[in-house]
Each structure stands twice: as C-alpha cells, then as structure tokens.
Design goal:
CATH architecture of the largest domain: 3-Layer(aba) Sandwich
Order of helices and strands: EHEHEHEEEHHEHEHEHEEHEHHHHH
Distance between the termini: 37 Å
CATH class of the largest domain: Alpha Beta
Strand content: 15-25%
CATH superfamily of the largest domain: Periplasmic binding protein-like II
Mean pLDDT: 87
Number of domains: 2
Number of helices: 14
C-alpha cells in the first residue's frame, strides 16, 4: 500500500479531538546517533501505520534499520511470543493463549493503542444493486454452514449469480474481529471464501471480480476508491458507510475498532526501540491520518506514552475492553 493517504462498541463512544501533537520529526530523540535494528511483524491492517512511522523515523535515525512484516495478527503474536520480534502490530487485543506463550518464554509486553479502524464491507463497482447490508444479512452470508450462494439468496430481486467471497485469513485479527462482531463467535466462518492475510491481495481480487463481496480495513479502501465499492452496514439504526467521521463519532457499528502495537519489555531496554516507540506515539496523530486511519485524541496518545515510559505490562483491553460504557481513556487511566 502506498502512502497517500473485539467487538469494541463501547470503545468508540468517545468523541475524538484531532489536533496534532507536532510534526513528524518530533520524538526522534538522538537525531541520527542511534544504531541497531527494530523488528516488527503482525497485522496487515496496522502495517501501513507502522510502515509510515518507520519511514519517518529512519529519516531522523538513518543508522537504525526498522523491518515491518505482515504475518497477520495471530502470526505476529506467535513470533512475538517466541521472542523473534521487538514489536507486534495487532488489529485486536492479545488473547489468553498468546499471552501465555509469551509468559512461557519470559516475554513481558506493553500494550499500546495507536488508532481507530472501521472494518469495511466491499463489493465490485459493477454490483450497483448492493448499496447496504444489515448485520443480520451479513451473518447469514458469512456464518458457518451458510446457505447463501447467490445474490438472490440475500435479497429477492437481486441477480441469481454466484457471490465470490473474499476476506481476511485465519491468522488475521481482522478475521477474529469480523467473525466475533458479525457471527457472534471469533473464528466462526464459512470455509468457502478466498482468504489472505495480505489486504492488497483482497483489494486485487475484489477489484477484478464483478460478483465479489469481501471485508478488510478502511484504509485499504481509502487507497483504492476507484477500484472498489463501499457497502453501508445497518447495525440497527439505518445504513452507515464507514468514514473517518463515522468511525470517530461511533455511528459506524459494529465494525469500528481500536488497533494496537505490543512492545517487548526486554526490547524496550534498547535505545533504538525506545526511540522508535516514543517517535511512534508522538507522531501518530499526523501519520495515522496520512495513511487513511482515524487518529486517537491527544490525551490517549499521552496516556499510552506514559504507559510505555512506566513499563506498564499486560493487557487492559483484552480483560475489560468489551464492558459497556468503557472508553479507551478510562481503561488506560485505570492502571495509572
């Protein structure tokens, strides 16, 4: 993706303020005096954000090599828990099995929210009859053992043509989030779909298939608007399209979510990793928006930075993130 641009309903109730904390050269610290490497892997959804941060960071610290992979959230946590990476990109909170793997290998971690994303439902522009889908229709389409094969199975009057399904692979946090939000259970999904952890592959598939229907992060749609058709989702209050505004104000439900980075405490002892994480949180407001995601408010980045500086370990979001009325700010403040 070129730079141009859990079921977390209660976390989106916060009204965001989007003033930026500073330009993309803040937080670099030593200005070119660091050496070493920072290893990042994980979510393809978070990848564009981390890649943008890495590019800007390396302008100020050219002797630090930052590598960013896209193994998917689950694949990234496997590597992170084995001590193979310093930072894990994640489009959902770490789950208990992944946290246990990290603990078994002596990996303590710091959980940091970095942006909001609106998981988007996409069709090919040739499907002019598909303008919106209800959550109930999405469930009938994507649930295990679904009987939906043709557009006419979704709504009478739609064409009697086969639907070709595209979506995130099983190692993706997007897969876990979508299945929990739509089907009511993480990883519960029909098996007959074209799966990939690489959202660019899904973009290409949907763009080249007139009967495609799929889902992935909003930023990949924003980068490919001329090739894709956004489908509004009706969560019970009428159809709503994802946009920075509807993701920010909480009206796009139930597919809005926070995304994260997880930092190894051991890795955070290295100056180059410290500098990179500080740069990430200081410049996220600008760079998150640049790649098509929704920035968090300044107060959340400040709390996240404090969480990092004090080495506050563990996952507050996995344990409390689904409580009704809980906000990102209240979750972070609860552990100060």
């Amino acid at each position: 993706m070129q730079r141009s641009g859990w079921v977390g309903i209660p976390l989106i109730l916060l009204t965001l303020s989007c003033s930026r904390p500073g330009g993309p050269t803040e937080g670099g610290g030593t200005q070119g005096r660091l050496q070493g490497a920072v290893r990042v892997d994980g979510s393809s959804t978070v990848f564009p954000i981390t890649e943008a941060v890495a590019e800007e960071f390396q302008m100020t610290e050219p002797q630090v090599r930052v590598t960013v992979g896209i193994a998917g959230t689950g694949g990234g946590f496997k590597r992170f828990g084995a001590g193979e990476t310093d930072i894990s990109d994640a489009s959902r909170p770490i789950d208990p099995t992944e946290a246990e793997l990290a603990a078994q290998n002596g990996i303590e971690f710091i959980e940091l929210p970095v942006a909001f994303d609106g998981l988007s439902v996409l069709a090919n522009p040739a499907s002019d009859f598909v303008t919106s889908l209800t959550v109930a229709e999405l469930k009938r389409i994507w649930e295990p053992e679904s009987k939906v094969r043709r557009w006419s199975d979704v709504r009478p009057g739609w064409p009697s043509r086969e639907i070709h399904f595209y979506g995130a692979g099983t190692d993706s946090g997007t897969f876990d989030y979508f299945t929990e939000a739509i089907n009511g259970k993480a990883k519960a999904m029909r098996a007959d779909y074209n799966a990939s952890e690489d959202d660019n592959v899904l973009v290409q598939g949907i763009a080249g298939d007139r009967d495609a229907l799929g889902f992935f992060g909003y930023a990949y749609y924003a980068e490919n608007k001329d090739k894709l058709k956004l489908v509004a989702v009706d969560g019970g209050k009428g159809p709503v399209l994802p946009s920075p505004e509807t993701i920010r104000d909480g009206t796009y439900q139930p597919l809005s979510r926070p995304v994260f980075i997880y930092v190894s405490v051991k890795a955070a002892a290295r100056p180059e990793v410290q500098a990179f994480v500080r740069f990430y949180l200081t410049n996220a407001q600008t760079l998150v928006a640049e790649v098509g995601y929704v920035p968090l408010p300044d107060s959340i980045y400040e709390l996240a930075l404090k969480r990092f500086e004090t080495r506050q370990t563990g996952s507050v979001f996995a344990n409390k993130g689904a409580q009704v009325g809980v906000t990102l700010e209240s979750l972070l403040k609860s552990e100060q």
